[in-house]
Amino acid sequence: MTTDKKEREGEMRVKKIENGVVIDHVNAGKAPAILKLLGIDSTFPGTVSIIMNIPSAKFGLKDIIKIEGKVMAEAEINKIALVSPHATVNIVKDYHVVKKHAVKLPEKLEGIIRCPNAICISNREGTPRLRVEQQSPLKVRCEYCERVFTEEQLA
Amino acid sequence: MWKGRDVITMREFTRKDMEEVLALSEKMEKISRGRGYDPILKGKILATLFFEPSTRTMFSFQTAMLRLGGTVIGTAEPKSTSAAKGETLWDMIKLVHECSDAIVMRHPNEGSARRAAESSDVPFINAGDGSNQHPTQALLDLYTIKQQKKKIDGLNVLLLGDLKYGRTVHSLAYALSQFEDVTITLHSPAQLRFPAWMYAELKESVKIREIPSMDLSQADVVYATRIQKERFADPTEYAQSAYVLDAEKIGTMKEDAIIMHPLPRVDEIATEVDADKRAKYFRQEANGIAVRMALLSLVMTGR
Hints:
Chain A has 155 residues and is α+β, with helices and mostly antiparallel strands. Chain A has helices spanning 3-12, 31-37, 74-79, 151-154; strands at residues 20-27, 48-56, 60-68, 88-93, 96-102, 108-110, 129-134, 139-142, 148-149.
């Protein structure tokens, strides 16, 4: 079987969603980290499907996440780039993809993620403000406590 | 541009900035010792907010302000006031800046200095934010090094003790990284190593290295810091990590090297060392007044 065919088969492993988002081209193994980043846990009302380690023509292996009933604003979409810079987010309405977004990490992450430093003032009051200093490997600095974090520390 | 400037972190100080502070500090030294009087801050009010215990830094700032003719307001226990009622730091600073011409603050949360400075319309000076930075200590450390060694370029500075949580060593390392041909040597217990992200960042601009044993023989400046017992869950680990600079140990130091310590010390430096001509920590502490006078004058008047 060709990689393309395996990829299609992998994607079909979970049935199409009616309304929500399909996050594709997620770095293999990073799907759980993305759910954590989006704050999706057992309390989320919609059905969440994760398919991990699907053969991918572009990336070797990839993960896919399908979230029924999820609406995502641009800032939330771009947050995904923190753990999976090549991911795409497909907005699904009535079983059809109505919009495709490539995630893009903004230079400034204001109110998007929390500072991982537990004693940083931004975890007590105000809006967390972090700056992307380097895309690859990822280096993000908190503008308050000044600490620099790697991808592993942010996810 | 000094007037109105906030002093938050040594990461924002250029060599030129530091040299300007040191030059003015030298001019302030006489007055800082009570000889002469120059009321350039007459009519100005400094607010001091210490959310963590401090004797040395608070007294030093208060004296600096008074020596220049200014007035100090403050509460020794801001925790017992509005912060205890759940008021945010942001809101508290909004009140304090209305009552003062500059604010000095120490706070246990990292980044609190930036947050407070953003809320304040008057110049803000960080007197320690958690384990992050303590810039005025770094400036008085540099002043002492320059005063005692006549230069900063080319020196080998050995930092000892708690390099993980010690904000003074963090600020000093960034300050030193702006000078030429400086070597920063680090030695600490394994649990208290210098933060990896700072090490990686500093490596771009300065020679920085860790040494496995406490070798004092190469250093021009031995900068000792306190290892706090409360950093260790296991008291036996603390006992193994503790170190003492005594007469025998400093016997291996260069004749013209100096010993510094941000104080208070507990057991890191034996009192017998105080009489050694290389012991400069009390001088260092005294220098804090002149350096803080210079900074207060710069941020409030621009000169």
